[in-house]
Amino acid sequence: MKTNSIFTALLIGTGLVATACIADPGVADDVGEEYGIEEGRVGEAEEALQIAWPVAAWHFDVNCSGATAFDSSGNDLHGVRSGGVNCAAGAKGGKSLEFNGTNGKVEIPDQAALDFTTAMTVSACVKPQSLASGTILSKWYALDSYQLGVSSGNVLFSVAFPGGQWGVTKDVTAPAATGVWQHVAGVYDGANLLLYRNGALVASTPASGTLQQSSRPVVIGNHPSWSAFNGNIDHVYLYNRALTAAEIGTLKAECLN
């Protein structure tokens, strides 16, 4: 039998202090089951989780039809599912969440680990049925901080800096597609906004400063109760640093061959 392995971590705040590799196949599968990773995809998820350990990681494999969306990062940033959300086939096996485009969402309560300052990455596998307007993930609205979504035929990554009523917004967009799985990632590195689609850098724009902090929850599939996503979402990650192009490619491999 092939031996699966998975990393666990001791984290203080958002800093990685120590890691340990669990090589026992039974333990690895138990960890995967506890944190929402289907048994057959533990090894695949492990590879992505080894990228400097994400702040949050939602896979939706285990308890896919339940009320809780488990975070497999070790930070216990679990979400609560509500509205029109169904369990469906995932990007490469396993499960995903299918959002109905009206009131479906997964809401993760605000915590300090979800507030970023001068760098961040948000990544997801998505299969939108509409590109008119829809939120993949947001920490947005009174005050704005960051969001990834679709709008007017494009994938959109936005961040906000302090200023004005809700914040000073910077956006980057690029064309997307409907009805097919694709990987999308937004990166802020302190000097630029970068947008990746299917592992390729497709758009960038200069942006600098400290991101605005928001007390809003993180919401997957909504914003927080409008601009609802219509389609499937899988393998959602948040990082408190700017991932490299090679690391984005590793995450892309969870969605596409």
From TrEMBL:
Residues 118-246 form the LamG-like jellyroll fold domain. InterPro entries: ConA-like_dom_sf (IPR013320), LamG-like (IPR006558). PANTHER family: CUB DOMAIN-CONTAINING PROTEIN (PTHR47635), LAMG-LIKE JELLYROLL FOLD DOMAIN-CONTAINING PROTEIN (PTHR47635:SF2). Pfam families: Laminin_G_3. SMART domains: LamGL. Residues 1-20 form the signal peptide. This is LamG domain-containing protein.
